[in-house]
Write a structure and sequence with these properties.
mainly alpha, 2 helices, about 50 residues
């Protein structure tokens, strides 16, 4: 590994340990949107998978 990359990797590792969550991201909103998208995909899949 190059010596010039070591400070950058150290800074990235320190930033990752702080959590890194943005203040505007709500876990409930993100989870609810993910659940809604998965349920929509499940509904679409079941509509296309009728008796053939």
């Amino acid at each position: 590994m190059s010596t010039s990359a070591l400070p950058l990797l150290t800074k990235l590792a320190e930033g990752a340990s702080e959590g890194g969550n943005h203040d505007s991201l709500s876990p409930y909103l993100t989870g609810g949107a993910g659940l809604g998208i998965l349920l929509l995909l499940l509904w679409i899949t079941t509509r296309f998978n009728r008796d053939r």
